[in-house]
Amino acid sequence: MAQQPKVRKFAGDLRFYEIGTGADRIPLIPDPDDKFGNKPLEQSSLTFGYEAGDTTEVKSKRRDDRYGQIIHRDANPGTTNVTVGALEVPVGFLARMLYGSAVTTTVAEGVEADQSLTIHSKDAPVDLGHRFVLAVPAPVVKKGSATLEKDVDYTIDNRQGLLIPKAGGEIAHGDVLTLSYSYDGYLETAINGGAVPNKSFMILGDVQDRIGGDEGLLRIPQVDLTVDGDVDWFSDEPIQLTLTGPAVFRSEESALYTFKVYEQKVG
Q: What is the rounded distance in angstroms from the CA atom of residue 136 to the CA atom of residue 5?
C-alpha cells in the first residue's frame, strides 16, 4: 500500500512555566482544572529561527593557484531563537510589556489602626498601601490629635486606596498623618519597571498533526523571552504580543530542545 505524503499542519497547546530559583517552575496561567495545573496559552504562531555563528577560515599563501584559497574552515555554533505570537496577555507577559518584573500577592481583608502616612506633597494623591478601602466603618484621618474632615481636608478613592488632600484644607507638605481604616481582600499584581526586559521560561508543547493525526511533544527547557516591538496599550484592537528570544542550553539537559512525533500502532 502506497504511503500518503507527509503533509503537515500542526496545532498545539503551549504551556509556559516561568523559571524561578533553583528547580522552581512557576505556571504562567495557573489552573487547578487543567491536567498540568497550567492552562495553555492562546497563541497564533510558534517559529524557530537560527543565526549562524562566526566562521574561521584559513587561506593558503602558496605561490601557485592555491594562493588565497580556503584550506580549512571552522564554524562556531549559532543561536536558535524562538518567537511566539500571543493572543492573550497573562500577568507574566504583561510584565514583559512594561519591561519589568511582576509579583502577585493575595491580600486578605484586614484593618489598619493608627497607620502613619507622610504627605510629601499635598498636591498629589498619596497611596495608602491597600486597595478596596471600605466606606463602612468610615476611615479616620488625624493630624496630631485633631481629626480631619472628609470632603473638606481630604477625599479617599476607596477602590484605588488613595488619599487626596483638598485645596484649602488642613493638610500641608511634609505632614505626618495617622489613619485607621478597613479594607477588603483582593489579588494584586505589582509590576516594577526598570528590571531586566527578558524573562526565562520553559515551554511544553502538546502538539497534534491535524492532517496525519500524529501526536507530538515539544519541550524547550529554557528560552529568554522579551516583547518584540512596541505595544499600543490603548489600541482599538485587543492587544496581541510577539515575544522572542534565544533558547538557552541548560547544564542538566541533553539537548537545547526536543520535539518527538509519534503515532500509536494498530493491533
A: 71
